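hey so i finally got around to running the thing on that chain from the lab meeting. sorry it took forever, my laptop kept dying and i had to restart like 3 times. anyway pasting the input first so we r on the same page abt which one it is
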Amino acid sequence: MATTTTTPAPLIRRLTIERFRGIKRLEWHPAPGVNVILGGGDVGKTTILDAVALLLSPTNTVPLSDADYWHREVENGFCIEAVMSIPETCGINHQSGNAWPWEWSGKEPKLPQIDAEPLGVANVEPVYRLRVQGLEDFDVAFEIFQPNETVNHFAVAVRRKIGLVRLSGDDRNDRDLRLVQGSALDRLLSDKTLRSRLGHKLNESDVEEELRGEAKEKLFVLTKPSSSKPFPRALAWD
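ok and heres what got predicted. didnt touch it at all, straight out
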């Protein structure tokens, strides 16, 4: 009998944004699977998506303006960093310079322990610290921050293999971002009827009743403010 194997997808374990557009500093730990960013107009939802898109940009040429810098303070630059779990298929370890993984503690990356279990064994998850910096001359620097405090270039070939897809305005009004793994998902994303079919399917079921435990509690936290405030903020930053 033929068996199929599932290729692990890249996961963002921690996203940190500093001095990018209207966000002075934000730290976010996305959960595996679907994440919802909820908020009113002009509170930073699109800025978060644009930060991820910039970090994983499939090109090295990125047009910037002074509006991309906090309070237009170009001299201070900006920094976007993500701690990511990246599968070998993305070529993270096949660059001209080696990329050494960190260990994920569940909240932050930590230095790998020489005498501990090898990375990728048991509960030791290898992660990488990736960042893009906006420089004073409106240029960008794509970097991999190594455990020994050195910095290597974050190659465009690896960024392309990670597979970030940004849907155009013709496909989605909210300019969605997705990490894509596999041609089957590519075909689904190109199907313009997908959104309507998903909406119809969701209307047939009671989503709240299908949720269990922590998911149900999070839904309550999101919906409670909407009874008194028309535009609740699900994320807070400085």
